[in-house]
Structure formats: C-alpha cells, structure tokens
C-alpha cells in the first residue's frame, strides 16, 4: 500500500503559516523520485519533512523555520537552509517574510 500524497507547495508560495504547521520542508524533486506523484513536482516543489528532528544538511535540500532579528531590533519570521559550515550565508540562503512575501 502506497503512502498518501503529501501536501505539495511551490517555493514561492510557502508562507509563515506553512512553517507554523510544518517547521521543516524538503525539496521533492531530489528526494521523492520513486513516489507515484513525482511527476506533479519540479525543482521548486517542497513537502513537509517527516523524518526525525533535528535535521542535517546531509538529509536533503531543506527549508527550516527561523526567527530573524534585524539590526534595528525588528523581528521577522522566515526560513533558511541548513549549512555544513556555520555562517555560510551562501548555503544558508536566509529568507524573511515581510508584507506577505519572502525576501532572500
């Protein structure tokens, strides 16, 4: 018996509410090639992570809920990609949610 199809979201449509419900999302296109619904995905499709927490960069292309504080002290919800090396902004690719959109 196959697993039910998970919730699929395009990268650009992920919202703070998605990360409230599921704090970690994984890219489907590199992870789920054996699933019957794989043809419904592309490089921008993510699904909720169902594995153990905490996650590691070696688990796949992940987006992890984060809370950012800007220099002026303003807090923002957002997400980032786990990196193997601390402070590697190129790998972390932080995104902040502001005014209904996300900005990297």
- The ordered H/E elements are EHEEEEHEE
- Helix percent reads under 10%
Tell me the fraction of residues in β-strands, as a range.
25-35%
The major pleated sheet works out as:
7 strands, antiparallel
User: Treating each run of at least 4 consecutive H or I residues as one helix, how many helices?
Assistant: 2
Mean pLDDT, nearest integer?
89
Structural class: mainly beta
Low-confidence parts lasting 5 or more residues at pLDDT below 50? Answer: none
Structural Rg: 14 Å
Shape: globular
Measured distance between first and last alpha carbons: 40 Å
Strand order of the largest sheet: 1-3-2-4-5-6-7
Number of strands: 7
Structure explained in plain terms:
This protein has 104 residues and is mostly beta strands. The protein is 10% helix and 30% strand. It contains two helices and seven strands; from the N terminus they run E-H-E-E-E-E-H-E-E. The protein has helices at 16-21, 89-92, and strands spanning 9-10, 24-27, 45-48, 62-69, 75-80, 95-98, 101-103. The chain has a seven-stranded antiparallel β-sheet with strand order 1-3-2-4-5-6-7. Strand 6 and strand 7 (101-103) form a beta hairpin. The model has no long low-confidence stretch (mean pLDDT 89).
């Amino acid at each position: 018996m196959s697993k039910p199809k998970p919730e699929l979201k395009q990268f650009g449509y992920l919202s703070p509410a998605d990360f409230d419900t599921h704090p970690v999302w994984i890219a489907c296109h590199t992870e789920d090639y054996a699933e019957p619904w794989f043809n419904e995905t592309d490089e921008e499709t993510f699904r909720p992570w169902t594995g153990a927490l905490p996650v590691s960069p070696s688990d796949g292309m992940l987006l992890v809920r984060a809370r950012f504080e800007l220099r002026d002290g303003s807090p923002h919800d957002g997400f980032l990609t786990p990196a193997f090396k601390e402070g590697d902004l190129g790998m972390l690719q932080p995104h902040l949610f502001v005014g209904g959109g996300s900005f990297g």
